[in-house]
Amino acid sequence: MKQVAQNYKSGELSVLDVPAPACRPGGVLVQSRFSLISTGTEMMKLTEAKLSMVGKARARPDQVRKVLDTVSQQGAVATYKKVMNRLDSYTPLGYSLCGVVVEVGAGAEEFHVGQLVAAAGNEYALHAEYNWVPVNMCVAVPREVQPEHAAFSTVGAIAMHGVRRAEPQLGETACVIGLGLVGQLVVRLLVAAGVRVVGLDPVEDRCQRAEQAGATACAAPTPAGIAAIEEALAELTGGRGADHVFLAAGGASNGPVETAVKLARDRARVIDIGKTRLDLPWNAYYDKELDVRFSRSYGPGRYDDRYELQGIDYPAGYVRWTERRNIESFLDLLAHKEIEVETLVTGTFPIEQATTAYEGLADGTVPAVGVLLEYPAPVAEAPPRTLRPAVTAAWKASPGAEHDPLTVGFIGAGNYASSMLLPHLARLDTVRLAHVATNRSLSAANAQRRFGFSAVSTSADAVLEDAALDAVFIVTRHHTHADLVCRALESGKAVFVEKPLALTRAELDRIIETAERTGNYRVMVGFNRRFAPLLTELKTAFQAGGPGGSSDRSATRYLVNAGQLAADSWYTNEDLEGSRFTGEGGHFIDTVSWWAGSLPTEVYAVRGPDRDDVQATIQLANGASAVISYLTGGNVKYPKETLDAAGGGRNARFDNFTRAGLWAGRKQTRLRARGGPDKGQQRQLAAFTEAVRTGTPMPIPIESLVATTSATIAVAASLLSGRPERV
Predict the structure, then answer these.
(1) Beta bridge partners of 251
(2) Last residue of a domain, which of 321, 342, 374?
(3) Residues facing 616 on adjacent strands
(4) Do 127 and 216 belong to one domain?
(5) What's the pLDDT tens digit per position in 596-633?
(6) Does residue 548 have a pLDDT over 60?
(7) Residues 142 and 161 in one domain
(8) Per the domain annotation, does 364 fall within a domain?
(9) Which of 269, 294, 319 is the last residue of a domain?
(10) Any alpha helices (H) in 50-202, and if so which ranges?
(11) Domain-embedded: residue 397
(12) Order of strands across the sheet with 471-474?
């Protein structure tokens, strides 16, 4: 299928051929008819993408702060790789469309194939021929509404939520500053609600369109224009001023905010819908005691994964107007001819000419109001979900190699896979990257462009059923791991899965049963710390003092400065993904187990002061012990991981993969990482691929993987029971 995408690093805009998304539970697969270009949000993204790296940093200071914090914990090299991976990738555009349902997922049976729907969301209603859309982001289109008009519904919901935030009443007066697409829709909604409207915009055509839609007077935001609007408001309100002022403008000027206070009455409401500068003139806003309100996107439910992805609605008795109900209301107004958008359409382009449309918007040859992309008429057959274009991986088998290169498939190619796994694999002559599957079409396209996969898909089944593959990498969200591992083992493939191997005892038992039943024990979990060069060097030095090694009966403390999660992180969904420690704690249990050369037998865990804090004591079979302190309330500048060990008259300290120290007798030895922090991914991948390719034992025995996973699950059990738990 075709999809519009932009490379944020270079600013290049393209129409790509990518695999269509699969239809997943909880939503429907929609074939697009029309999608609406957001002349505000999307053009701002395009402008930012064309800036220099310094310009991008100035435009997004919030992201710069995150980068600096990451440098403090993970080092400059690792941070640079992650940032470049995010920048040098195709990103989607679009969030408002109308299309036809071509497939219905489980749990979305309220829709049916062939139904015309409006879809929303900058992750779901993209400028693409096909989109998977969750139920709460999708609304049936009334028969009276044309598809090209229904494509306005998401932007209409943005305008509607802004109007609702103002709580206007019949007979009141409003001023709309900024008469672009959102501003035009705000005017129409206010007029339909019986509110008298005036407007300001520097473009004369926009002012005329607003007046044609029912605005009393519109003018340019010049001194003369503002004076004319003040005069109009004085006549409409008896000199009081506007009851509501809507900021629907964008840009870096503080003019809209300063103008708003001049036009507003005492104790009026100022509603910010656009992304404009907000340096409030304090005295002026204080004198009038203005009520400044923000309007967040389409309405309640936005940015809530439980609402948008899981389909959990808010009861109308408590939240009358959710984002979905706003879209329904906007479509209802269109159906009853109470508002119209036909006069807002200033251009319609076939999807193949999307770049022409954006170029016209950028240079002004296409009026920047309502510009639509049109898609081919719906067809009966299912869309292609796997592409095998003429792009092959750049690899050559080493001369005289004893075996053919290992043919590898990937399920998942997110930021971690693309920055920490795939770059290392792509450099191995003994590996061929053959097939990648991701939920999002552009993620697969990005992986193919950067790493040369021969085939790209949007369904894990396509990779699991690919008989040409020797090994499958599973780099997906935690709740999917166990099932995908079992299915991969049953297909006869070797498996590399990122932690955790399983979230529950039942899942772990299923994996063990599958391995025993199939005889396929070729499993590797991404416990990379034991392969980190500096840590392995420290362990070797620590073990050098005495029979059996100093680590055999050592006591170890592992401090993890995990930090706080972003509010929108998928890690926060514990019901689905397990706790933070269940997801990540296996790394640290595996490390202390490897350090001591023994498997865990018992754990005892207590919570710390913050919600996700865990203090776990691990007892190992050989008498060694470890305490893992997984803490989230620390300072972001403090190192993320530190390890201290004592035993056999020796002490060792490991500091965040950058430096280490050994104290033995009267001597202190200092060690430093060569070439920057290295968490062991490269060595881990080389060991795994070589073991699978040559048929030698796996780098980590399956008994160790099972014991570590059991111990991680036992930590959760101990937190609940308040007592030690056997592994």
Answers:
(1) 276
(2) 374
(3) 605, 628
(4) no
(5) 999 999 999 999 999 999 999 999 999 999 999 999 99
(6) no
(7) no
(8) yes
(9) 294
(10) 53-59, 61-74, 76-87, 147-150, 153-166, 181-192
(11) yes
(12) 386-387, 455-457, 431-437, 406-411, 471-474, 494-497, 523-525
Which contiguous run of DSSP H or E holds residue 511?
helix 505-518
The pLDDT of residue 112: 97
Same domain, 320 and 340: yes
pLDDT higher than 70, residue 350 = yes
Closest CA to 13 of 62, 66, 50, 55: 50
Residue type present at position 157: A
Domain that holds residue 719: 529-678+699-726
Q: Residue 513 sits in a domain of what CATH number?
A: 3.40.50.720
* pLDDT for residue 398 is more than 70: no
Q: Which two tokens stand for residue 98?
A: 């109308």
Neighbour-count burial of 98, counting CB atoms closer than 10 A to its CB (0-12 exposed, 13-18 middle, 19+ buried) = buried
Backbone angles phi, psi at 600, to 5 degrees: -70, 145
Which spans in 566-649 are helix H?
A: 574-577, 580-584, 586-596
- 712-to-569, 603, 604, 609, 726 alpha-carbon distances in Å: 21, 9, 11, 20, 11
What is the DSSP track for 409-476? EEE---HHIIIIIHHHHHT-TTEEEEEEE-SSHHHHHHHHHHH--SEEES-HHHHHT-TT-SEEEE-S
User: What pLDDT is stored for residue 703 in this prediction?
Assistant: 97
The length of the chain, given as a count of residues: 727
Distance separating alpha carbons of residues 17 and 479, to the nearest angstrom: 30
Integer Cα distance of 168 and 269 in angstroms: 9
- Residues 126 and 148 occupy one common structural domain: yes
How many angstroms separate the CA atoms of 661 and 679, rounded? 17
Residues 25 and 101 in one domain: yes
* Separation of alpha carbons 313 and 319, rounded Å: 9
Instruction: Give the 3-state secondary structure of 176-228.
Output: EECCCHHHHHHHHHHHHCCCEEEEECCCHHHHHHHHHCCCCEEECCCHHHHHH
Q: Cα dihedral angle (187, 191, 195, 199), rounded to 10 degrees?
A: 30
- Grouping H, G, I as helix, E, B as strand and the rest as coil, residue 154 is helix
Angle between helices 481-490 and 505-518 (to 10 degrees): 10
Same domain, 568 and 619: yes
Both 287 and 368 in one domain: the answer is no
Which spans in 124-180 are helix H? Answer: 147-150, 153-166
